[in-house]
Amino acid sequence: MRLTRRAALGLLAAPALSRAQGAARLLVVGGGFGGASAARFARTSYPELQVTLVEPQARFVTCPYGNLLLGGFRQIGDITHSYDGLQAAGIRLVQDWAAGIDAAARTVRLRGGGALAYDKLILSPGIALRWGALPGYDEAAAEVFPHAWMGGDGSQIELLRRQLEAMPDGGVVGISIPANPYRCPPGPYERISMVAAYLKRHKPKSKVLALDAKDAFSKQGLFQDGWKALYGGMVEWVPASQDGAVARVDPGEKVFETEFGTRHTLAVGNVIPPQSAARIVTASGLAAKTGWAEVDPLTFASRAAPDIHIVGDANNGAPMPKSAFVANNTAKQAVACAAAALRGQSPPEGVYFNTCYSHVGEAYGISIVGIFRPGPAGFVEVPDSGGVSPRGVLPEQRRLEAAYADAWYASITRDMFGG
């Protein structure tokens, strides 16, 4: 149900949990980088909490490192993770979809029937693809032009990989990149790199045509240096100002059409469509007109319902990027603030980190780092706190950053799932 003004006011007036009620119930919706991190951190750091995780998938396929499947450097099993470790830690796993939220009653309705009660809710459901926002692109079109932008069961990334394998040498792989904001700002450009890496080895007469709704992107100089060094003229990136914004797609004809009417016929097409917070957020009245949830920058409590903390890609955390690392560490802050509120204590100080590695080649990595804090009106990047990899011909630097990326992935997934 949607939140009413009366429900929201009632929540503001709700008292802290009484110890007479027994163990406080922390409910986590979504088992990705935000949700799994929140559930495990809550269980290990606040053993007095009853922790329940609602997640429809039996296993988690990560979007990070999915691009490496396209390059042929990883297999689907390498990016697939079990929830067994969370269950072994004492977290109750409910394999179902969250269908609705009754914020006044503090319950989450399940698609399979019934409801779960909570004292605090950590909501980390990720994104929804805005079907139809790009004319011609709907769920049926995604079977021709895969988005491969949500982990799910891994079928989309595997479909895109099979299409690359089946295409004739000399074909064009088109990638449609949306305007900001979207999940993982550097992700499309790592994808360009990994597709080019595959083509260079197996389809050397082919090319990548990247059509972008923006004129600039994260780590742009570093990516373009790498494309030139590794792939020569195989990659063509077209910014919006040079007719790069895709205005319409035709899956039947396998065509991307730009704003100025240019038609590009493709052997393989990858459409990364416009996005919003996941449906459970928008349908429950927790999203602003932007399509993203507004949250308190210290506690991540929803502006519409303070007992619901919204983390990960679903919130409007700008200027923080929608990244796996941000989801992981802000989820822990949300749990710590929820636990403090249940104890009648003040929330802890907030400081949030982002480290994002990208592979340009198998042994060619680049990165960006940032540190953020809560500010009076939202999130604020700490001045002079981060930066990007140095530019230049630095083969050892690139090799080390690729190795650091692999270590980061192993570390963060172990932090989420144990083991």
Automatic annotation (TrEMBL):
InterPro entries: FAD/NAD-bd_sf, FAD/NAD-binding_dom, FAD/NAD-linked_Rdtase_dimer_sf, FCSD_central, FlavoCytC_S_DH_flav-bd, FlavoCytC_S_DH_flav-bd_sf, SQRD. It holds the Pfam family FCSD_central. Residues 1-20 form the signal peptide. Residues 158-273 form the Sulfide dehydrogenase [flavocytochrome c] flavoprotein chain central domain. Gene3D superfamilies: FAD/NAD(P)-binding domain, Flavocytochrome c sulphide dehydrogenase, flavin-binding domain. Residues 25-138 form the FAD/NAD(P)-binding domain. Residues 349-417 form the Flavocytochrome c sulphide dehydrogenase flavin-binding domain. GO terms for molecular function: flavin adenine dinucleotide binding; oxidoreductase activity. Keywords: FAD, Flavoprotein, Signal. PANTHER family: FAD-DEPENDENT PYRIDINE NUCLEOTIDE-DISULPHIDE OXIDOREDUCTASE (PTHR43755:SF1), PTHR43755. This is Cytochrome C. It comes from Dankookia rubra. The lineage of its organism: Bacteria, Pseudomonadati, Pseudomonadota, Alphaproteobacteria, Acetobacterales.
